Amino acid sequence: MNAASLFDKAIGRAVKSGRLTVHHADGRCARFGEPAPGFPEVTVRFADRRVARDIVLDPRLGAAEAFMDGRLVIEQGDVMQLVQLIRTNAPWEANADLRAGSPGRRLANAIGFAVESFNQARSSRRNVAHHYDIGNALYALMLDAEHMQYSCAYWPREDMTLAEAQEAKLAHIAAKLAIGDGQTVLDIGCGWGGMAIYLARHFDVRVKGITLSREQIALARERAEAAGVADRVEFALVDYRDLAERGDRFDRIVSVGMFEHVGRPQFETFFRASARMLADDGVMLLHTIGRMGGPGSTDAFTRKYIFPGGYIPALSETVAASEKVRLIASDVETLRLHYARTLRAWYANCEAHREEIERLFDARFYRMWTFYLAGATSAFESGGMCNYQIQFVRDRRALPLARDYMREAELRLLGENA
After folding, report:
1. Is 188 helix (H, G, I), strand (E, B) or coil?
2. pLDDT tens readout for residues 76-92
3. Which residues face 186 on adjacent strands?
4. In this structure, how many other beta carbons lie within 10 angstroms of the beta carbon of residue 81?
5. Rounded to whole angstroms, how far apart are CA atoms 346 and 348?
6. Is 356's pLDDT higher than 50?
7. Counting beta carbons within 10 angstroms of the beta carbon of residue 355, is it exposed (0 to 12), middle (13 to 18) or buried (19 or more)?
8. Is there a contact between 379 and 287 (Cβ–Cβ < 8 Å)?
9. How far is CA 349 from each of CA 79, 129, 375, rounded to the nearest angstrom?
10. What is the pLDDT of residues 33-59, one digit of tens each?
11. Which DSSP state fits 302?
């Protein structure tokens, strides 16, 4: 059986609802599934015979590279709808999954993931630069202008704009930190400074933001100056491990969207460093993408093109690592569809700025980036991805016994912004 026939057989099993039409390179047309409410109809064309082979060998990486290279052409619909069509036919809750790649590819991916996941300090800087030092212009076009948050927004209402949802996320996290005047706050993986600046604007605190991205830190400093909080916010290009070695301590620690870059072998190192830096009566809030199932591995496309060295943690392994340094998980919240809505907003912004993004990079980069956003969206809508917000304390008496204080602080912050 040739690759095209193997492809048809696999897709025939995968697509039952919705319609996928495939024009093969040999001129043959194959149709899969039946039209159904809520499922898109997509038509693709394979420009050469290798497309089917590449997808059969490694579905995600093969499809991604064929799409990036212009060899998999979408003639009806877009890449978001293509990925959605396939993934929604195999929802995580139904205990279904896409077919894995060939045994050889799976072994190669497992070995590559294991090697990259050690993520020592030197490779951490290189991995962060791969994703964040491609220039701030792309992120300025994609993210919310007010806070430049490259992490899951919070959508308590469906009619919110991206900017409103990101503001709500910052308030949600700040409320869980239970911040008091005069405290010191460490922001691990501060990005472009949105969280640090927000905290300095709403509380009488001093904030230290750290990152490994030179592009991020330069813009973060500019944004702090523009916001009028540069006297209370400091940004440093330093690894969290080095900061812990210096003996610095903070009343509050927050980390948003950084833990995904730590790498599984470094989980205990991360929490040990955090525990050393957290005051005895301190509070820490970790916001991270997570797996709703058990531990897994990072796929080849993501490792190669998006987050080398990255790993999405399961809740079980995250909490297990924190337990080893006696950090108490005082509150855990699972955000389910919030990131899917965030990603769809970013995807829409990229579509609106396609010409500008292609001028900054090229058409291949644009296709790679939108494939990444589409795949991530489907992982949160139908796959096993979610977000976790885990609050940690070192002292069980550090916070009120009931959660009411969180809601009260959140409403107060949102009221200030009304």
Report:
1. strand
2. 999 999 999 999 999 99
3. 208, 253
4. 18
5. 5
6. yes
7. exposed
8. no
9. 15, 23, 16
10. 999 999 999 999 999 999 999 999 999
11. I
User: Which tokens hold the place of 119?
Assistant: 């993520």
Tokens 């491609």 label which residue?
Answer: 134
- pTM for the whole thing? 0.90
Spatial separation of the C-alpha atoms in residues 385 and 291, rounded to whole Å: 5
Structure tokens, 369: 């980036």
Q: Listing from the earlier edge strand, what are the strands of the sheet with 72-76? A: 29-32, 19-23, 41-46, 72-76
Element (H, E) at 154: none
User: What confidence tens digit (pLDDT) does each residue in 253-279 have?
Assistant: 999 999 999 999 999 999 999 999 999
Number of C-alpha atoms within 13 angstroms, CB side, residue 282? 20
Count of Cβ atoms closer than 10 Å to residue 210 Cβ? 22
* Identity of residue 175: A
Q: ∠ at Cα 236 (231, 238), nearest 5°?
A: 160
How far the first Cα of the chain sits from its last, in Å, is 63
Closest alpha carbon to 160 in 326, 412, 171, 312: 171
Helix 214-227, helix 194-202: angle, nearest 10: 20
DSSP letter assigned to residue 99: P
Q: At what angle do helices 50-57 and 59-68 cross, to 10 degrees?
A: 140
pLDDT in tens, 140-195: 999 999 999 999 999 999 999 999 999 999 999 999 999 999 999 999 999 999 99
Q: Which of 172, 132, 104, 241 is nearest to 411 (CA)?
A: 172
Tokens of 379: 């992982």
Query: At 205, phi and psi to the nearest 5?
Result: -135, 165
In DSSP terms, 289 is beta-bridged to: 387
Helices (H), 295-403: 300-301, 315-323, 338-352, 354-360, 363-381
